[in-house]
Amino acid sequence: MRARVIYNPTSGKELLRRNLVDILQIYENAGYETSAFATTPEPNSARNEAKRAAEAGFDLIVAAGGDGTINEVVNGIAGLERRPKMAIIPAGTTNDYARALHIPRNDLVAAAEIIEKKQTVLMDIGRAKNKKQDTYFINIGAAGYLTELTYDVPSQLKSVFGYLAYFAKGAEMLPRVKEIPMHIEYDDGVFDGQASMFFVALTNSVGGFEQIVPDSKLDDGKFTLIIIKTANMIEILHLIRLMLSGGKHIESPYILYKKTSKILARSADGSKLMINLDGEYGGDAPVEFTNLRQHIEMIANVEEIPNAVDTKDVYVDDVEEQFIREIDELTDEDTK
C-alpha cells in the first residue's frame, strides 16, 4: 500500500516540517510505503497533488495542515470515481474537522498515530453547485452578513488568537448586520423571508465551537440547515449565548433548524449573496447544496465520536465563559 502526505510547510509555526520524519515513519509502520509533498503558494497546490496521487493509485492521502489544506485535498478527490482513504493531521487555527473526528489537535505525532487504531468512518461530503462551478466542502456552507467576517479576519490574527479573532471581528460587525430577503428550499419545505444568514453544516464544529449543531451525525446523508431570522444585535448576542450554553439556540423562535439532504438558496430580490465554503469564498448564489452520503472513507478516532452531543452537559471553557459574561453585560446595558 502507498500513502502520500500532502502538507502545508507553513502551518502550525512550521511544526509539520520539523515533525515530518516521525510522521512518515508512523505511516510506514502501519504498512504504507509513504512519501510527502509540500504545498506551494500556487493556487490549488494541495488539490492538484491530491487528484494526481489518487489517479496514480495511492491508497491513502494524508492532509496535513489547516482546514483550508484539508478542504483542498477533499476537492482533489471528491469528484473521482475511485477515491483513496483520507487521514488528517491538523495544524491550523480552529481545526473544525479534526474536532469532529476526535483527532488530537495539539500533537501532530499523536494525530498521525490514529492510523494505528485502524478505524475509519464513511464521511458525508457537501457539494455546492452554482452557474460557474461545482465545489466540495467538508464542514460548512454559509451566506449572509456575519459570514463576511471570515474573509476580513487577517491570517496573522487567526494564527495568534484562534477563534478569539472571530469574536473580536464579529463584535465589530454586529452593528452593521442587516436582514436579506432569502428564498431557501429544503427537503420538507421552503423558507421565504428575512434572514441575516444561514448555515449548511456537516459536522458539529463551526469556527471552533462544538455546540452549533448539537445533534450532528457524520454519515447520515443529511445537512443541518440553520437560518437566523433576525439581524437585531441584542437578539443575535442572545442566540450566541444560548449556543455557548449547551446548544439551546436551536429552540429559539429566531432560528429555523432542519435536517435535509438538499438545499437551494438565493436572495429573493436578486441582490448579490456570496457563499462561504469552509471559510473561503465559494461563488455567488443561486447555489444548490447536495449531501454526498458516506462519500470519503476517513481515518478517525471512531470510539471517541458520539452519536450526538448531550446538550444538557456541554463543557464550556474559560474563554467561552468570559464571552458569555461580556454578552450579558452588553445586553444589560442595551436594555436599560
From TrEMBL:
What top-level branch of life does the organism fall under? Bacteria
Q: Which cofactor does it need?
A: Mg(2+)
Signal peptide residues are none
Q: Which residues form the DAGKc domain?
A: 1-132
Listed GO molecular functions? ATP binding; ATP-dependent diacylglycerol kinase activity; metal ion binding
Which GO terms fall under biological process for this protein?
Answer: phospholipid biosynthetic process
Q: What InterPro entries does UniProt report for this protein, alphabetically?
A: ATP-NAD_kinase_N, Diacylglycerol/lipid_kinase, Diacylglycerol_kinase_cat_dom, Lipid_Phosphate_FormReg, NAD/diacylglycerol_kinase_sf, YegS/DAGK_C
- Its recorded name reads Diacylglycerol kinase
- Similarity annotation: Belongs to the diacylglycerol/lipid kinase family.
Sorted alphabetically, which keywords does the UniProt record give? Answer: ATP-binding, Kinase, Lipid biosynthesis, Lipid metabolism, Magnesium, Metal-binding, Nucleotide-binding, Phospholipid biosynthesis, Phospholipid metabolism, Transferase
* Tagged with keyword Nucleotide-binding: yes
In its UniProt entry, the species of origin is given as Pisciglobus halotolerans
Q: Name one GO cellular component term.
A: plasma membrane
